[in-house]
Design brief:
- The chain is α/β, with parallel strands linked by helices.
- The chain has one domain: Aldolase class I (TIM Barrel), CATH 3.20.20.70.
- 32% of the residues lie in helices and 18% in strands.
- The protein is built from eleven helices and 13 strands.
- The strands form two sheets. Strands 7-8-9-10-11-12-13 form a seven-stranded mixed sheet.
- Strand 4 and strand 5 form a beta hairpin.
- Helix 3 crosses helix 4, helix 4 runs parallel beside helix 5 and helix 8 packs parallel to helix 10.
- It is globular.
């Protein structure tokens, strides 16, 4: 096995700090935050050295955001400018039938609008559920609506662009029991938003559809980036953490990734890889290497214990050690840099935003 090259020595302290705050959080207020959901959540949104950063809010963290906008550790300035994202104006609006815009879509980072178009999942029964996922928690708490219609999303997107300078949008979905696994509704929503706001860039996220024509349909609707998220490429880890989703085979994922690269282009396709689910770190990096060779960006993020998930509430799983996350992040960043794949070159989506990962800090 060929080891991946590490990031430059000069970048190591900054990557280490970025990893530490991703796991330990910061002491700060954050007007823009997200509680519960399908992926990384329970975070406040900040601008860290000019880039979006989703960081846990932890009153016991040794890391502090000072009133003058600096990140400190035990009183020592760490060299990062940091400021909470300002609450967007579109949050104050509601639809004609009284649905608050914030229940339809949320601001992520500085200029990304994000929504889960269907907030339920056919795999949410406890025996089937992904153990890191709380997609229906925000629905149960009355913080969102189950299904966002194309017209709702078009209305909110237009306001977010006009009032708050939003430039891109992420649309994900819970999995349906149809052949498309949710892609058909995504395509309808994309088409409506692009008609209302032609300038906005859109990423879609879904499981591999049974008929790969759905990938072209999403592109034709106006999406320009796509996330097909596997979380782990280790079948034993997948079966343990994602009992329902793991029945979608790795062969199906590879076929979907290849078709998505053909349709959307190299480095416009991504997948999450979660660090801390028991996968061997070297094997995780080698999986990332395979993805990069396909033209797929492996978005490396830590597993973090979130309330409402089975991993936290039942399994009592802890976050990965900081040294493991830093090593995996820096090694994957080096592979991405060598391949000329940068997050900022993606048209829209989690990779383009980068807020949930330390990869941008590591140079990718």
């Amino acid at each position: 096995m060929t080891p991946a090259t590490e990031v430059s020595t000069d970048a190591v302290p900054r990557v280490s700090t970025r990893v530490n705050i991703a796991l330990l959080g910061v002491r700060s207020d954050a007007p823009v935050r997200r509680a519960g959901g399908a992926g990384p959540s329970d975070d406040g949104h900040f601008i860290l050295d000019g880039e979006g950063a989703a960081i846990p809010l932890n009153p016991e963290s040794p890391y502090v955001v000072t009133p003058n906008g600096r990140l400190t550790h035990d009183g020592a300035d760490l060299g990062f400018d940091v400021a909470p994202v300002v609450r967007p104006r579109f949050y104050d609006l509601e639809t004609a039938d009284g649905v608050n815009y914030e229940m339809i879509a949320k601001l992520h980072g500085r200029n990304v609008l994000a929504t889960t178009v269907v907030q339920t999942c056919v795999r949410y029964d406890e025996s089937e559920r992904c153990r890191f996922c709380a997609i229906e928690a925000s629905l149960d708490a009355g913080l969102t609506v189950a299904v966002k219609t194309p017209s709702m999303l078009a209305e909110v997107a237009e306001a977010a662009v006009r009032l708050d300078g939003v430039t891109s949008m992420v649309m994900t979905t819970g999995t349906s029991n149809g052949w498309d696994r949710g892609a058909k509704h995504l395509a309808r929503c994309v088409r409506a938003v692009k008609k209302a706001v032609p300038s906005i860039e859109i990423q879609v996220q879904c499981e591999p559809p049974a008929d790969l024509q759905a990938i072209t349909d999403l592109y034709d609707a106006g999406a320009r980036s796509i996330g097909i998220h596997v979380e782990s490429m280790d079948d034993e880890v997948r079966a343990r953490w994602m009992p329902g989703k793991s029945r979608v085979s790795m062969d199906e994922y590879r076929a979907a990734w290849r078709e998505a690269v053909r349709v959307f282009g190299r480095n416009q396709v991504s997948t999450y890889l979660l660090v801390g689910m028991g996968e061997d770190p070297d094997e995780l990096v080698e999986g990332a290497r395979e993805l990069i060779e396909m033209g797929v960006y492996p978005f490396v993020v830590p597993f973090r214990p979130l309330k409402g998930t089975l991993a936290t509430d039942v399994d009592k799983v802890q976050a990965p050690h900081r040294s493991v996350l830093a090593s995996v992040t820096s090694r994957v960043a080096a592979l991405l840099s060598a391949a000329g794949m940068r997050g900022e070159d993606q048209r829209a989506g989690c990779v383009a935003c980068g807020a949930c990962s330390a990869l941008k800090t590591a140079g990718a």
